[in-house]
Amino acid sequence: MTSMPLNDRRILVTRGIAQAAKLSDGLRALGAIPVEVPVIEIRPPDSYEPLDSALRNLSSYDWLIFTSTNSVHFFGERAASLGIVAPPTGLQVAAVGAATAQAARDSGMTVDLVPETYVAESLVAALQNQIAGKRVLLARVAVARDVIPDALRASGAIVDVVDAYKNVMPETAPQQLRHAYARGLDAATFTSSSSVTHLAHAAKAAALAFPLKDVRAISIGPITTQTLRALGWPPVAEADPHDIPGLIAAVTRVLGR
What we know:
Blueprint: E1 10-13, H1 21-28, E2 33-36, E3 41-43, H2 49-56, E4 63-66, H3 69-81, E5 92-95, H4 98-106, H5 120-127, E6 135-141, H6 147-154, E7 158-168, H7 173-182, E8 187-190, H8 193-205, E9 216-219, H9 222-230, E10 237-238, H10 244-255
Parallel strand pairs: 1-2, 1-8, 4-5, 4-6, 6-7, 8-9, 9-10
Antiparallel strand pairs: 3-7
Helix pairs in contact: 1-10, 3-4, 5-6, 7-8, 8-9
């Protein structure tokens, strides 16, 4: 059998069911055994009223900002349900990360700005000198950091924030985590702050110590790293670039044989 860099390494994948494949397939291609324990389930927001109101008044905005592929998906789905098939002329679109930008393009939008690094602070830096007096719509997950809206408002922008979707922990996560940990894990991968906090909740519900003993944490980017450190589990590596291929490369650096 041909030896591969991650042969038989058991890697915890915490992404939601619909999004785990790219990471799991990439790890599997290097010989790893991806252990999927989805700790995030994507659901519609508690109310669509704020998003619907923003969509009906989309022409009043100068910029539309997306911070995840999920926000693009739910925004586009809701827009279609209201009969809105394309953004109005003059609306500029910004997306955090290549995957988010591609999702926006796939939905028929022209993306005007993608920051150099895939974090909120980089987007703010790219926009701050051209945003004064502009109206900005930020479509994002419910309960998120306020870095973008706060910084843009400080730069003179008028910012509306609407929930496009929310993250919840699946009821099955604690039992799945207990079984996965009992069979052994070499590392755990995290693609968002939510994946960290939800895994912590799942561990508590499963009566497991958190951080998971003898399991190395590997983070997709600085905000996720910050959350891991805050919860006492400093990652052994961080992806660079901050995307799924970068995360797979980080796993290989740490666990490659």
